[in-house]
Amino acid sequence: MEKRDAGQQPPTIRELYPELIGAELREAEENLLGYIEETWESYQEIRLDPKRYALFKALTGTESPSTMKERSNPEKENFNAK
Fold first, then answer.
1. 64 secondary structure, DSSP code
2. Which candidate, 42, 43, 41, 13, places its Cα nearest to that of 26?
3. Fewer Cβ neighbours under 10 Å: the N or C end of the chain?
4. Which residue from 37, 80, 22 is spatially nearest to 14, judged by alpha carbons?
5. In whole angstroms, what separates CA 67 from the centre of its chain?
6. In angstroms, how far is the first alpha carbon of the chain from the final one?
7. Which pTM does this prediction carry?
């Protein structure tokens, strides 16, 4: 698959899975569209509820990534240690 510019359309199911044919391709397209529809409906429901939307934003918000210096700080608690 060739590299696309930011303004171009996303790849099609056929481009992503060229080995699929006929019924398999239609099923993959239907599954993707169903997933997108369910996701959009869930998002719309969350948007209507201020408390749920605030939680959604908190859970999906981006934070600045930690640096290697922070990760290697021995004074910080290591949650993986037992």
1. P
2. 13
3. C
4. 22
5. 23
6. 45
7. 0.56
Contact predicate 32/13, CB 8 Å: yes
Q: Is the dihedral of CA 23, 27, 18, 13 positive or negative?
A: positive
b/e burial code for range 27-48 (CB count within 10 A of at least 16 → b): eeeeeeeeeeeeeeeeeeebee
DSSP 7-45: TSPPPPHHHH-TT--HHHHHHHHHHHHHHHHHHHHHHHH
* CA gap 29, 33 in Å, rounded: 6
Residues 4-45: tens digit of each pLDDT: 677 788 899 999 999 999 999 999 999 999 999 999 999 999
Contact assessment for residue 33 and residue 25, using Cβ atoms and an 8 Å cutoff: no
